[in-house]
Every structure is written in structure tokens, then in C-alpha cells.
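WARN retry 2 of 3 for item q-0093 after timeout on previous attempt; input resubmitted unchanged.
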Amino acid sequence: MQYEVLFVSKTGNTEEVAKAIYRGIPNKRKDIRRLERNTQIDIGETYFIGFWTNRGSCSIEVLDYISELHGKNIALFGTCGMGFGAEYYRMIENQVRALIPDDNVYLGAFLCQGKMPMYVRNKYEDLLKRGQNDDLALHMIHNFDEALLHPNQEDLQRAEYFAANIVEKLEACQCQR
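OK item q-0093 returned
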């Protein structure tokens, strides 16, 4: 079975996770690459597709690519700066999962927090200086500061485990056929 790890990374967070996903696929036929407009569609049987979160969903490149995949195994992974927690991650997963055509087998998702560019923090500080939404601005600044620590080693180890677990389940399924 051919495994493809494809990703879009704006700040490097998703690329870090993609490399961990790749390491988690044990000694198999596998490849890792950035997802670009000209990335070939039919290159493997199982896809790990990574994205940075854009307003609660994936970037347009990922949306375009997954909408063209048919008859494949698909697992998602991603990073998001704005939230940290299972409920938020589930919402993002459901948003992106809904874009996958029904003739694919959906395998699950791994999401973790990722650091954001400094201009984002500056925007929140400006809100605070103007006295607008002080509680929200303080919450966003705190979230930004927490995100600076991610993806961390624990996040990357969990990503590796996620990939290894999916490969193990897929191979067990094939052995039974």
C-alpha cells in the first residue's frame, strides 16, 4: 500500500506535524510533500492530509484537493492557533470531513495547537489599548502566548502514534480480506 503525506503549511507548524506523521508510518511505501495546485491526484491508496486552520476549516488548497479524491483512505491532520481543546478540534474536524467525498474511507483526524505570527498578538493588544472587548482581548492574548509553545514534543509524539495506529488498523483489515 502506498501512503502519501500531503500538507499545506503557512507558518511551519503543519509541516512539523507532517514530518511526525511521516515518521509514524513504519517502513512502508510512503512519500511526503507539500500540497500544491499541480499535485497529482491518484498517487496512493492512503492519504494523510494536513492543513492549517483557516476560520474553523482548512485552507482552499486542501479543500480543492480532497474534493477530487475518490476511492481512497483519508486521514486528516492539522494545526490551529486559536483554540485548544477536544470540542474545538472536533468542530474543525467535522467541518473538513464534510468536504471529503462519500466514496472515500475516512480514518480520523489529529489536531493540535500551533504558534501564530506576531502580528496576530499585536492585533489583540490594539483591542486592549482601545478598551474594546477587554475580556476577549485578554483571553486571545493568553491563547496566543500558549500557542507559542506548540506544536511541542508531546504533540509530535501523539501525531506519530496517530499515524502508526492508522497504518496498523489498515494492515489488520487487509490481512482479513
